[in-house]
Design goal:
Blueprint lengths: L2 E12 L12 E11 L4 E6 L6 H15 L9 H11 L1 H4 L3 H21 L3 H4 L8 E6 L4 E2 L1 H13 L4 E5 L2 E3 L4 E3 L4 H19 L4 E5 L12 H11 L6 E3 L7 H10 L4 E3 L5 H11 L4 E4 L7 H13 L3 E4 L5 H13 L3 E6 L5 H7 L5 E2 L2 E2 L13 H6 L20
Parallel strand pairs: 4-6, 4-14, 5-7, 6-9, 9-10, 10-11, 11-12, 12-13, 13-14
Antiparallel strand pairs: 1-2, 2-3, 4-16, 7-8, 15-16
Amino acid sequence: MKITDVKTTLLTGPCTGDPYILSARKLRSAALIEIHTDGPHTGIGECYIGYFCPELVATAVEYFKPILLGVDIMEVGIHTLWQRMYFCENFWCRIGFGASVLSGIEAALWDLKGKILGLPVYELLGGRRHDRLLAYATGGPSNYPEDHLKGKIEFYLGLGFRAFKVGAGYWDDDRGAPVEAPTRSATVDMEAGKATLMRKHVGPEIAILMDGHMGNPQSATWDLETAKAVLKALEPFDLFLFEEPLPYTNPWGYAELVRATTVPVAGGECLTTLNEFRQFADLGALKVAQLDAAFMGGMEEFMRVARMFDARRVKIATHSWGAGVAQMQNLHAAFASPNTVILEIPPAAGPLHTELWGDSFVMKDGYVLPPTAPGLGVRLTDEIKAKFPFVPGSGEFNSVPGKILTD
């Protein structure tokens, strides 16, 4: 069964059905990669970089297409094809954009192979290691006033989640603007007050996660001393993890922070390939590593990084804010990794999730169950393509002078 074509499909649709996160974004785009064969099966994958700069993905996929055309993946292994693409342009595939594009191509190859063999992809990655995995609702900004934050939490619990994550700071729903903390002590008081409210509201049985978003700063970035002070104040509240308390350009600060607090320090969503993650692992800079199979270089790269952290007794969690195919890539890799402890799930998922994963995504009592369909268990029909036509310029970025995100 030989590869006859490799195509990129760009889609745009509503960002999410979560009414408490609409202050952040209205639209989202997705870059999906289709691998066609001379047989009955087509492989489908997604690269998360398509959420940010979808227009660039198709050009990169076309660049790699000649490496794949005419290949029978039952004769030439997926790892071999990944290596050929990686080393063809290792100046821009070692990390970042190129690695993320390879994530989508590689996922489509795994999906294709799973369909050919009639097996879920996690079986091809070494076999299922969990019967179920805890899911958390990824909640974006912390809503303000406080009754709005309580409403957000109740919304997530009402969807069946037993864990949720909210961001540092506050987004004032009434004013449509952030609530600023002007000093370090005010920042500490804000976050400790929020944690007090949340823990009192949900009790001890619900897992609370928080996110500093310091890997993707949209306001003042914390320095190490601020991060230390905040996490120290949060220690009494039994947080499951605190994500991105510092920028990723400071792995040494992460390592110092890990030693300074009992709050599990997490991060990794902006990192790609084993090469970037290794520095954090060697420094002991994370208590929970957050891996994204649709961004970091692929599902096999996810497994390599997971094994590296497992050898250091570090747990992993998925980062997954891509569309439905990216979500399933992360689920399969997570179920194949023994040290996975929790999954990031978009609550009230929008149609670019539900239409693509169909009935393959199943959550029961706050836990995600392993997919059972061959391949990734995703679909991409002509009807879906027609329903969500791509809107140029719909990628997400941080606004700077001269380039302002208006959505």
